[in-house]
Every structure is written in structure tokens, then in C-alpha cells.
Design goal:
The longest helix is centred in the first third of the chain and has 4 residues. The chain starts with a strand and ends with a strand. By secondary structure, the chain is mostly beta strands.
């Protein structure tokens, strides 16, 4: 059973920080590239950041320099450190394993950034 569980979302003021966590199934964590995506209701998901199995990262231009994706292979957990948050970062954030087309998804965690 593939299981991805996000946590760490919440309400934060503009300029604040949050750290999201994604606990993954041990059977798949070491195999798949991990990623964070976000979605506003009524709109399509968009890439936030990805990290492959050897630590190579990729970021959306909108979050580069503010967000950091990481993974702890011993804990089967991926993280998204979110700094200098802006209201436009408000979305449901989803953990992904293996890519957005054929991969697996967590249930999502809400991030709300107030002005």
C-alpha cells in the first residue's frame, strides 16, 4: 500500500515560515522522486519543488530562494521549508511520489498566508 501523509500546514502571516512534512511508505520512498505541488480550488495543480533519490532539486521560479525541499531517507520523510511566505502561496499543498502523471499523492495540507 502506497501511503503519503502531509502535515505542517496552517495559517501564517505574510513573511512568516512553515515547514511541511510528508511521511511516505518505506517501500517506495527510496525508489521515487519526491515532490511538492500546490493547488488553489478551481485551478490546476502546479509544481512547487521536486527532489530525486540522490538529492537533486528543482524549484518553480515563484518559490526559488524562499522554499527548500529536502528528504530524510532514514525517516522516509520529505520536507518543504517555506520562508518569506506571500499571500499568493496560499493553496493546498500535496506531496507526490513518482511524478504528477503516474505517481502517488497525499491528501494535502492547507497553507494560508494572510496579508
Amino acid at each position: 500500500q502506497v501511503q503519503l501523509v502531509e502535515s505542517g500546514g496552517g495559517l501564517v502571516q505574510s513573511g512568516g515560515s512553515l515547514r511541511l512534512s510528508c511521511s511516505a511508505s518505506a517501500s517506495i520512498f527510496s525508489i521515487y522522486r519526491m515532490g511538492w505541488y500546490r493547488q488553489v480550488p478551481g485551478k490546476q495543480r502546479e509544481l512547487v519543488a521536486t527532489i530525486n533519490t540522490v538529492g537533486k532539486t528543482n524549484y518553480a521560479d515563484s518559490v526559488k530562494g524562499r522554499f527548500t525541499i529536502s528528504r530524510d531517507n532514514a525517516k522516509n520523510t520529505a520536507y518543504l521549508q517555506m520562508n518569506s511566505l506571500k499571500p499568493e502561496d496560499t493553496a493546498v499543498y500535496y506531496c507526490n511520489a513518482g511524478g504528477e502523471i503516474v505517481g502517488y499523492w497525499g491528501q494535502g495540507t492547507q497553507v494560508t498566508v494572510s496579508s
